[in-house]
Amino acid sequence: MKQIANKIAFLGKALADEILHAAIVKQIPKATEILRKDQYINVIPFVVEGLVKVISRFEERELLLYYIQPKESCIMSFSAGLYNQPSKIYAVTEEDSTLLLLPVEKVREWIKTYPKLNELFYQQYNERYVDLLTSIEQILISKMDKRLYDYLKEKAKVTANNELKITHNQIANELGTVREVISRVLKKLEVENKIKQSSQTIKVLSA
């Protein structure tokens, strides 16, 4: 608990103490779905350690919307929980993660009492809004080679690892396309010395 207390100390002692008293601490393995579309929100996840990706699914395809990193929460869960609406997204752990599950009714109280929590959610709302606009711009305007390279750089950044263990099919799902397109563009990026592929990994060579 002391380690978790240190991670949320930036929120201020009074709020941190209330969170530690009311929240549930969960250790969640990689690739675990923690939120589904149309699910009603009882708890809002706050990432202490690890990484969570937020995605939309359309039929059999996925589209990566944004990542939730340590000291961040899921702003779309916050919005749905606050207004008692069903979730519009899916959330999946990208790696083994430690989460604080914040009860919605407590969050409603805390945002009225603690300005720091309001500031945190408004800041993250703005950041996620920019992420979504960037995603839309890439889909509408950017060529697939730029979209794919930007995606790989962002994944390397949020995981702090330039060597990504990921399949062509996984990338295709997250970018809302098909595996054959991803394989072809990855070869192009490799020829341009931007990445290096092995049987199980893709290494980002330059940022």
TrEMBL record:
Q: Which residues form the HTH crp-type domain?
A: 142-207
UniProt entry keywords in alphabetical sequence: DNA-binding, Transcription, Transcription regulation
Origin superkingdom: Bacteria
Q: Which CDD domains match?
A: CAP_ED (cd00038)
Q: Does the keyword rRNA-binding apply?
A: no
SUPFAM superfamilies per the record?
cAMP-binding domain-like, Winged helix' DNA-binding domain
For this protein, what is any one GO molecular function term? DNA binding
Could you give a single Gene Ontology term from the biological process aspect?
A: regulation of DNA-templated transcription
- What is this protein identified as? Helix-turn-helix domain-containing protein
* Organism listed in the record: Spongiivirga citrea
